[in-house]
Amino acid sequence: MTPATLTHKDFLSILDFDALDLERCLELAARLKADRARGRHAPTSDALDGRHVAMLFDKPSLRTRSTFEIAVRELGGHLVALQADVALGRREPVADVARNLERWVDAVVIRTFSQKLLEELAAATTRLHVVNALTDDEHPCQAIADFLTLQEKLGSLRGRTIAYVGDGNNIAASLAHASAMLGVHLHVASPEAYQLPHAVVQQATGVSRHGARLRLFSDPTDAVAGVDAIYTDTWTSMGQEAEADSRRRAFAAYQVNDALMALARPGALFMHCLPAHRGEEVTAEVFESAASVVFDQAENRLHGQKALLLMLLAPAAI
Ligand code: CP
Ligand code: NVA
Prior knowledge:
Strand order of the largest sheet: 7-6-5-8-9
Bound molecules: phosphoric acid mono(formamide)ester, norvaline
CATH class of the largest domain: Alpha Beta
CATH topology of the largest domain: Rossmann fold
Number of helices: 12
CATH superfamily of the largest domain: Aspartate/ornithine carbamoyltransferase
Strand content: 5-15%
Distance between the termini: 7 Å
CATH architecture of the largest domain: 3-Layer(aba) Sandwich
Shape: globular
Radius of gyration: 19 Å
Structural class: alpha/beta
């Protein structure tokens, strides 16, 4: 594989990749997944030797935190687990946080609320690689794992159609960016007030390849007709807990259940980034069905993030 030279030092968004970077990342992730069985004999097991990666989580996490920690360790790097008492943007300007970190570590993986804050932090340093581990607006690491999973299950991505049913949130935004770049059609079904932001639609249209189309729906039954996979996410994201009741009412007709799955192509997949809420956005039956690939997605977070770290920090080792 040709060493990938990325145009951006950071990964704050799928849009920091071009389509070729994203395809390379998926290809590398698949290779790293196969190599994992070789443990310390895997060719990349020392690739981050002597490098430090800091992690800062302002919101809860199971998957993202665990998989980044394991990824850094399996690539031979060292972790610095920052605590939430860093109080990002409140104790000192984020630019100062960045200018401290760049003196000690090679990269920082951050989960926080504001995408703007993350952009501000990244812009304050020329050396530190900043990785978005989820903001209110985007979750690009999840999208890498999602398309790795789809590639494994469907064989090829180009020309496939996914329906995302639910909140036009961070998961939907990164899915829209990545599907457009990979030539995958995306249908997004949401209640009027929770649609994918117009800016995301424009961004996705701007990076669309191979005729990938993004279509917005209000009726989930229209959105899922004949699709290859149905994806959903929580109705109430982290930080929106006060709106939980009104959201439950607004999204009641957007549950992924057997009736909705039956409208997709026979053999269609069910996808969820997790954590899932049975009886809300998905029924227990669909979640536990043979169609469900949710734990493959969770596993693939590890392989996708190993690929990402190598592309950012050690392209010569690829
Ligand atoms: N899907 C995902 O990002 O999970 P966590 O919130 O547990 O990290
Ligand atoms: N939309 C969810 C995703 C969790 C991984 C949230 O932001 O809470």
